[in-house]
Amino acid sequence: MESLSRASITNPGTLSPSSSSASYFLFPRRFRRSNGFSSSSAFGNLRRIVSRCRVRAEIEKPNAPVIDFSDPEWRIKYQKDFERRFNIPHITDVFPDAKPIPSTFCLRMRTPVSEDFAGGYPSDEEWHGYINNNDRVLLKTINFASPNSAGAVCIDPDCTWVEQWVHRAGPREKIYFKPEEVKAAIVTCGGLCPGLNDVIRQVVITLEIYGVKSIVGIPFGYRGFSNSDLSEMPLSRKVVQNIHLSGGSLLGVSRGGPSVSDIVDRMQEKGINMIFVLGGNGTHAGANAIHEEQCRKRKLKVAVVGVPKTIDNDILLMDKTFGFDTAVEEAQRAINSAYIEAHSAYHGVGIVKLMGRHSGFIAMHASLASGQIDICLIPEVPFQLHGPHGVLTHLKYLIETKGSAVVCVAEGAGQNLLQKTNATDASGNMVLGDIGVHIQQETKKYFREIGVHADVKYIDPTYMIRACRANASDGILCAVLGQNAVSFPLIPLPPL
Ligand SMILES: Nc1ncnc2c1ncn2[C@@H]1O[C@H](COP(=O)(O)OP(=O)(O)OP(=O)(O)O)[C@@H](O)[C@H]1O
Ligand SMILES: O=P(O)(O)OC[C@H]1O[C@](O)(CO)[C@@H](O)[C@@H]1O
Ligand SMILES: [Mg+2]
Fold first, then answer.
1. Contact status, residue 186 vs residue 235, Cβ threshold 8 Å
2. Exposed site from 149, 212, 317, 382, fewest CB < 10 Å?
3. Beta strands in 67-163 (DSSP E)
4. pLDDT given at position 318
5. Is the CB of 436 under 6 A from ligand 2?
């Protein structure tokens, strides 16, 4: 629960904006690569590799200042820079005269008190239902004594302890938007992810608790702002009550779409002054641009709130993103099928491709959980297919020693082995080559050439996994994210 609540509380705190704006942005970064592929017996190594990659990614991230560790002040400078990057813009930055009002979010029991507690519930007097503006969440809790400690995540070569604090999310005592003056919109962009409906539902329900009456959904991502044949969808508790029971997005999703200034024009026309964007790195780049355009440039009092979505779980500093747990759980079914196929065949080889454009968290967690994977290939770790240290030689060894083998490969792994097409999708994302199909073909060819029988079965469950409804733990995470996303635009935040 500690881990879940930290994630839930810090996600919006670090990633979503305050009253007038989108800030945030920790986004999928390519982790640096090291050598070798990993077999299940080497998962300890794999974890260390991924940790090392995370550390390097953190130090070497774009725009990060070069740190001179010989400077005695480096720690203070690092912390200041961290705070600068995590500072959340506030409505009063743009509108210094904006006046707060008491929160309309009621945390107390609404039902009449029973006779036993006629004078009020005993805890009422001690009730502090709101989050103090100065509450902070500590991002990292392990003080690694040395860079060689297992899984050490260090900033400098001595692994100095540097505290990193972020705002705590949740409802505040004072708010800056009068609920009756709010027209809130929700938009879901990019690819599907389990839990989108759960977040939409919770945003709507929480807005209603604050007293917001005008809530709409924008159909099919940012495209819904450009197509005149797509009209906004009125949302209420009644409409969203059961949407979490199915996967997908009630509103639909899309890639590509109108320019940022067109989106802002349409928002102005529609009178939208609060927008919740649910999406990945592209969506949030868009949200940031919308904020810059409307709040900073056009001086509009509009809140832009980002709820980060990545099924791949590749956002640094966050424990977990919604949909990831569900994806790992659902991937078990594909892995188990591949295992059964492989073990029921003479010299069976099962191959499963899972999501993960730039990171192998789904593949790695699903492999670890299943206990049925012999080789796990992830984008962080380059590998060779051919040659004495290649995957195929290892497969031959597994066939000879165990009689069968199962491979799990993340979609972004081994892209260097495939022909580049330079093709992009409607949002400008590079279209990846199909590493799963490539491994399947090369495996068949290899065993044919060495004259060893092999029965190769390939499973790609990508869209089946993505379209699932969220499991219980993702459902809770989504509910907390949805609630906190609403509280953020309504609250005042002092700088860190
Ligand atoms: N730099 C940008 N500025 C403005 N809008 C952007 C930018 N990048 C992407 N977008 C828009 O954001 C939307 C979603 O982007 P994209 O398709 O890359 O998905 P994503 O949010 O990264 O999610 P996923 O994790 O599924 O890839 C698209 O409508 C796209 O046009
Ligand atoms: O086919 P679509 O919808 O463009 O989405 C593809 C991408 O989205 C993901 O499902 C999630 O990041 C990836 O697995 C995949 O590369
Ligand atoms: Mg993306």
1. yes
2. 149
3. 101-102, 136-138
4. 81
5. no
Nearest CA to ligand 1 atom 8: 282
203/299 same-domain check: yes
Give the chain's domain count: 2
- Expressed as residue numbers, the domain containing 440 is 324-466
* 23 φ, ψ (degrees, to nearest 5): -125, -115
Q: Are residues 67 and 116 in the same domain?
A: yes
- Torsion sign across C-alpha atoms 241, 246, 247, 250: negative
- Residue range 232-289, pLDDT digits in tens: 999 999 999 999 999 999 999 999 999 999 999 999 999 999 999 999 999 999 999 9
Q: What percent of the chain has pLDDT over 90?
A: 64
pLDDT at 121: 56
Ligand 1: list residues with CB < 6 Å.
189-191, 221-222, 255-257, 260, 279-283, 285-286, 289, 310, 427, 429
Length of the chain equals 496
**What's the token pair of residue 262?**
């067109």
- Asked whether residue 126 falls in the same domain as residue 30, the answer is yes
Say what the ipTM of the complex is. Answer: 0.98
Is residue 162 a contact partner of residue 69, using CB atoms and an 8 Å limit? no
Catalytic choice (312, 314, 460, 474): 312
Q: Is the pLDDT of residue 166 over 90?
A: no
Do 386 and 277 share a domain, yes or no?
no
**Residue 241 sits in the same domain as residue 382:** no
Least Cα distance to 410 among 52, 31, 56, 61 occurs for: 31
pTM of the model: 0.85
Residue 496: inside a domain: no
Q: Is 469:190 a contact under the CB 8 Å cutoff?
A: no
Among all ligands shown, which has an atom nearest to the Cα of 278? Answer: 1
d(CA 117, CA 96): 44
Tally Cβ neighbours within 10 Å of residue 233: 17
Q: Is 325 a catalytic residue?
A: no
CATH number at residue 97: 3.40.50.450
The CATH number of the domain where 456 resides is what?
A: 3.40.50.460
Output the six-digit token pair for 308. 């980060």
Identify whether 203 is part of a domain.
Answer: yes
Shared domain check, 331 and 435: yes
